[in-house]
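Minutes, project check-in
Item: structure for the 424-residue chain
Input as provided by the requester:
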Amino acid sequence: MKLKPKKEDTVEQFGIKDFVHNLDKINTKRPGNERDAVITHFIQNLNHQSEQSYRSDALRFLSEMTPSDIFNQFNIEELVKLIAKEMNKIPFPAPKKPKFTFIDLFAGIGGFRLAMQNLGGKCVFTSEWDKNAKITYLHNYGEVPFGDITDPEIKAYIPKEFDVLCAGFPCQAFSIAGKRGGFEDTRGTLFFDVAEIIRTRKPKAIFLENVKGLRNHDKGKTLSTILNVLREDLGYEVPEPQIINAKDFGVPQNRERIYIVGYKKEHKHIDFNYPKPTNNKVTFADIKEEEIVPTKYYLSKQYLSTLHSHKNRHAEKGNGFGFQIIGDNEISNAIVVGGMGRERNLVYDHRIVDYTATTHIRGEVNREGIRKMTPKEWSRLQGFPKSFLIKVSDSSAYKQFGNSVAVPAIQATGKALLESLTII
């Protein structure tokens, strides 16, 4: 009979710490790269009905990874408990007694997940293709997201039952000229994969987010197609989508995004309304770094001169393009991926004490106190708490927060949806 690990046996003896801590060395090109996703999803769904989606493969993978002398001696279920204990040392665990379940597609760094967990939800499946975003997701939620959601083998892991499908899906071009604009017309787009999951799993509700421009994309045909699929082909009641601005929900960022919610037509008589602004006015000063910011975030004199020249050239042509400095009593522009997202959100910070350049910049550090916002400031602009862990490079962090949803706005909308369906 196999033994149970003794109390004095440590996770180090079983190589569990090494296993857990090496999960962030994700190699998306290796064969069977979903192994880490399967194992971590199994661990995070222990003692929940959703664990059955992962149990068989997870135990097989763990058996293959465990040194034979340990596996032959100890009970694999007890080893799973040890792994779970180590993996649950995370900032944002799922609620112990969840009120509902949801899945997190195109998850990024888990803005949807954080918001829905705050409302009492348990995430039972997540997917995200970006390697560095997976690392951030793992460190904060103890779970490696699955990869390409278009892969049928990955879709097969999605639990048969869950309450809400959440997705900040990318907007790809739809080719619907001369067609009805229904389910089949979305093939070749990532929305088709979202629709397919809705069709096969039939969640109680759906919650989608996209850029504001979706409303006018292809002269409105793209949004019309999406709504037609959700309403006519999939049979969901979908109120008119609404543009929600993050600044109306307690973060100092002017960020407009389109939100689409839906629910089964059996609930068509519910009284759903998108949330009203909270009127909780905040400014950049409320989320500004509390400590002196490293010199690497300050612009060089030469770079600043280039920005001024670039802005002046556009001004002469009647264009308003150029860098912008956000005052402490103001709110930021929308943070987006790329240099423009940082250049349009520069700030003054005169606390600098050492002008010695710490990075390979051209010229000296500027003496006007002008710097970029830090990744931590971007995280707070999106409503992530101070305890949110950033374990990737600055460039990856800017990209991840620029692509993220604004947590408070998602949470307010999710709350309105769930309350209207009496799920919470």
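Outcome recorded: The first helix runs from residue 16 to 21.
No further action items on this chain.
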